[in-house]
Amino acid sequence: MGRGLLPRRASRVLSGVGRRLAYTAAITLAGVFSPAPAEPAPLPKLAVSVSRDAEPGAVLTAIERCGETGTTSVVAPALAVDFGESGSLPLGLDAVNAVLRALPAGRTLLLHLRVQVAPAASVGEARATVLEERVAQVVAALPLDSERIGGVILEIAPSPGDLAALQFTLARLVLQMKAATPPSGPVAVVFPPGLVRQEQALSRRVAAYADLIGVGYGPEWRADAEWVRNELGNRVVLKAGPASGAEGLAAAYLDVVAETGDTLIDTLWGEEPTAEQASALCRSVQVLSDTLGAAFVGARMDQAKATLGSDADPLVASAFVDSSSTSSAFLVRAGGAPGHPRRITVSADGEGVLEVSCRSALNGRTFFTHPIPAPGKTKAEECACDVPYVVVSVHRDDPDARVYDWVSVTGRGRLRVEEIVARWQQYRAAQQRELDNVSADCLLSLHFGATPLGSGLDVALELRQFVDRSGQRDWVQRGFLVNGVRFRNPRGFSLPQLEPEKVVAQPLELALQEKYRYALVGTDTVDGTLTYVVSIEPEDPKAVLFTGKVWIDGVTFRQIRMQLQQRGGRSSILSQVETQEYHLVPSEGGREFNLLRSITSRQLVSAAGRSLLVERTYRFSGYQTNSPAFASSRAEAMASDLRMYRDTDEGLRVLRREGDTRVVEPPKSRVRSLLGGVLYDGAFDFPVPLAGFSLVDYDFRRTGGELSVFFAGPILATNLTRKAGERFRYGMDLALSAIPQNNRVFEGSDEVVGETLWMWEETLGVRASWQARPGVNLAGSSYLSLNLFSPTDDTDPSFQASGQGFTVQTSGELKLTRSGFTLTGTALRGDRLGWPQIGTDDASAVPTSFVKYWGEASKQFYLGKFTKAAVNASYYGGERLDRFSRYQPSFLSPPRIRGIPSGTDTFDAIGVAGVQFGFNAMDVVWVEAMYDHAWGRNLEESPSFRDFDGLGLDLGTVGPWGTFVKGTVTYALRGNLDRYNNRWGLYLLIFKPLD
Length: 995
Hints:
Layout: E1 11-13, H1 16-30, E2 45-49, H2 56-63, E3 72-75, E4 79-82, H3 94-102, E5 109-117, H4 124-141, E6 149-161, H5 163-178, E7 187-190, H6 195-198, H7 200-207, E8 212-216, H8 221-232, E9 235-240, H9 248-260, E10 267-270, H10 275-291, E11 296-299, E12 307-310, E13 316-322, E14 328-333, E15 342-348, E16 354-360, E17 366-367, E18 369-372, E19 379-385, E20 389-396, E21 407-409, H11 417-434, E22 437-448, E23 457-468, E24 473-482, E25 485-486, E26 516-526, E27 529-538, E28 546-553, E29 559-567, E30 573-586, E31 592-607, E32 610-625, H12 630-639, E33 644-648, E34 651-658, E35 661-664, E36 670-680, E37 688-700, E38 705-711, E39 715-724, E40 728-737, E41 741-743, E42 746-747, E43 750-751, E44 757-773, E45 776-791, E46 803-818, E47 821-833, E48 849-862, E49 867-879, E50 909-921, E51 925-937, E52 946-958, E53 964-974, E54 984-994
Parallel strand pairs: 2-3, 2-10, 3-5, 4-5, 5-6, 6-7, 7-8, 8-9, 9-10
Antiparallel strand pairs: 1-21, 11-13, 12-15, 13-14, 14-20, 15-19, 16-17, 16-20, 18-19, 22-23, 22-32, 23-24, 24-25, 24-33, 26-27, 27-28, 28-29, 29-30, 30-31, 31-32, 33-34, 34-35, 36-37, 36-54, 37-38, 38-39, 39-40, 40-44, 41-44, 42-43, 44-45, 45-46, 46-47, 47-48, 48-49, 49-50, 50-51, 51-52, 52-53, 53-54
Helix pairs in contact: 2-10, 4-5, 5-11, 9-10
């Protein structure tokens, strides 16, 4: 152990050519991340403890005869620690330091902690915090920075205490020790006899972190060791001792070798032997080492080119063969004693000479051998031994008996997913230890999906990020852009919540109470790097946690990519699908840190009771790591008038100035704006003025409800939504409009003026939605509409156009979002109540019910910082539609066809396809061009579909006093042009945020 705690070779190959072929086969069969084989080692390595109560000199002198530091290690006196306690921690390192001073040159020391975690009253995060602090205190106190420390043994006390807390403590100890500078070296975790199989969940989790797993020398030590080797795939340490008698420890060592050869135990650990016991052990090791050269490897008894026999029954022995000759050797538990010798026989077939020698495994004394009769061409020799353990060497002078291509494969090729996660944690812990601070530039882009008022909104924040050793993340906002147009004041205006609240239990993190389960789903190549792909699922499907995948480098175990889905929570964000990309950032001294390159997320945000797609991207650049100027740069940002943010458990929060300091501002639940503008599309002979305000309150009256109000003079739309559970929302809508619809009838290109009427629709209803999973939203609604009718100045007196009625509209909606695509399907049924007779006396009655259905699909493409393109397609249809229920394109409601005035064309069925392209011109104005092509059919006019084409141009810029001005101009290219009072329309909105 120590530097002797090195991997044993996974494959034993008995010729140079065969060795290379076997390595190739092993890599091919085990996968691309098989453990690399180590150098051959014919015998288990040794570790010997120095007693706390004895002078170390005599034991260390004896150990020198056991072999070099690569095969024999010195273990320091045990330090007993109860991690369940709190307060000061007197480790008692005097004895350890004494051994360090007495160590011969070239030797390294293994630290030895006896670990116990007593039960405590604290639970959950409080318990984890106490254990983490205790681990940090212990690791800081140990002399891990000494070059003479070669590794650590963590021995579980016979009464381990709280097993869940013990598992967490052991894993945290390993991570912290390997993250030390320099790293501690290999770490072994040693279980008391029987515990490794009794508590298999504990064993499996600990084995993911430890380099070796140890078992105690008891009646079932072999069953324990075989379970560790076969089930966990770990190298095995066997703890033997304390021994009795001068040769007690040597006998234990020889028993292990005789029973298992070199195929099971990697390291035999002798606990606190006397100098006499250590000397006896080293004599036995030396006898075996002299007999077995470096080319010898363990073999099954039937693979040796000689047969072993004895008058002792049963025969207990292990075999070794030499790849460079026909020699073989056996370690035999002969069971002889002075006055009671045992006969050992060796026989072999063939013509060659048979040479046999027998020696005592305890002291190397040689025993006389002589030939004995054997049938046929078989040759045989015999020796009589009066000692308990005998080493038998066999040489055959027969070239045909040489072995060239036998391979013994032990262990397993692939890592378990627990080991992959543990090695990721180890990589991360080592990086955190060396990373004092990080700062970087960041461009945060927010792309809000289309609404009835426009084609969407793009907001960009130019940020500088500061991250200190504690993990605190602060951001300073240096610039603010809307649709690529830069605000002169970099503070910009308030935005709704940018991020969901933090998930308390992060995936892959080491936790006292594990919240996630992991599975290895395969391998992949990312940017030329071979990676493991690990899936992440919550243990409790109902918990507000992440699901997703992580791509982990198969060599360094750094994460390269992570895709996470988050659903639920207390914020307005219904769900989020996020992809994190990482890359290596060089630092001074040649060190590289694995840091974020970008974060891309797609969020479904609750807006007025509906789900709105928001695409959010962080792009990092200009990294500085461990910068001496970090503190002064952050202090300068804190002292400025620029807006700042901080990552908190509730998401990204504003850091507000209070005197000379900054404090986290309570989350703002309100976003308010003034607005004004004008709407003209030819439906009226005059433009319709708009003036009012908008309000969104995400915590209405501190109830967690969401209130949305849009008032623009003649238009009022409001919604109140509440949340029930993590996935379900319900609410109420109210929509009032003082702008009547000019409901017109045409015959060809000529309007039937006498049948024109005014129609108002005022609506009140309820709506509920269920976020089935990230990217899947189901909604249902029921609305009661008051329909008012009035004749125009041109309506024929004989045409009945007055009255009122009610309509109940019930609908269901499915909305899917994935990879930037949005697909929506809706079905609606309308039932009319108390409607008046409209038209002449002989006109057909208005249908009492109708059905409408439509589907929409869209995708936006972002081609640069402020350039985007989009495509969309939709289809609208129905049954029993009439002049009041047909689809009527307009500025403020779908379906939209650029340039077609509202109230001019109505359709029983319509399909629309559109494209748009937008770009920023010199950070001054946003320009977006749109084109729509539609196929529309009105069955009262014709059974055929007619073509419609329209153009649109969006312009946006920053106005005075912190306003944003957005204007849209539309123009009809093709359609029922003779009907239109005007082929163009105008929509202008001036938006003034109130902060």
